[in-house]
Amino acid sequence: MANRDDMEMLFESDYLRRSGLSEDMHTEVEEELEEEELQDASQANMDDVDDDMDSAGTTTHNNTNNNANLSSLAVLATAFESPEVPLRDIGSQATWKLSTWKPGFGVHALLSESTDLYWQSDAPQPHHVDMHFARRVEIAKIMLYLDYRRDESYAPHKIAVYAGSGYHDLHEVLTQDFNEPVGWMDVSLAHARKDGYLKTFLLRLTVLQNHQGGKDTHIRGIRILSPDRRTNDIDDDALPFSSITLLAHSTIR
What we know:
The protein is α+β, with helices and mostly antiparallel strands. The protein has helices at about 5-20, 25-55, 60-80, 105-110, 150, 230-235, 245-250, and strands at about 85-90, 95-100, 120, 125-140, 140-145, 155-165, 170-175, 180-190, 200-210, 220, 220-225. The chain folds into 2 domains: about 5-80, no CATH class; about 85-230, Jelly Rolls. It has a 5-stranded antiparallel sheet with strand order 2-4-9-6-7, with no helix packed on it.
């Protein structure tokens, strides 16, 4: 007469044959079931611990969950953050106009690489610099080189930025204060549109106030930074096309 172990082996073989499962697959199913049972038991133990902690007036578990949610939000924010677009100076594409200037302290000083040069106005405030582009451009930010240590009462304290398609429809984009600035100062235009860029033909920078109540102003450099959307294969070309005809056929639409 077959013993109990033999009967169990016969029953298991018959079960495998009828279910169509191989012995390896059957073993894998059993292991998954055992793992699920262990997880259920572990979760039950954790629930018991949480109940005990809640009954004792402990808020550690809730704080942990809140921290986990905040961490998840931070990860999501990082994941959806768009990569930074490189910026380039497009000041050379503009026609520059100053409200006033002293002889020898004009536009060339604003565009120079040397911060020892500067534009100096020569009239009552406000003073302004106009940059007119032949086509509508995207502008991410303006950078100003200001030096309170050297310029003192000539250093701008409050500025305003205006934009428009022409002088007839200039509107204020922002105002910004500086407190004894030294170096390149960022004037971000990210709030101008949802995509983070101001789109305009005409840009006006106005100096509304100087430090110490000064009248005339000094600005030692202006850079107009725009997203660089040029393709790398053209930019890195040792002999780039220069004519409009060749550039028009340099890429496939």
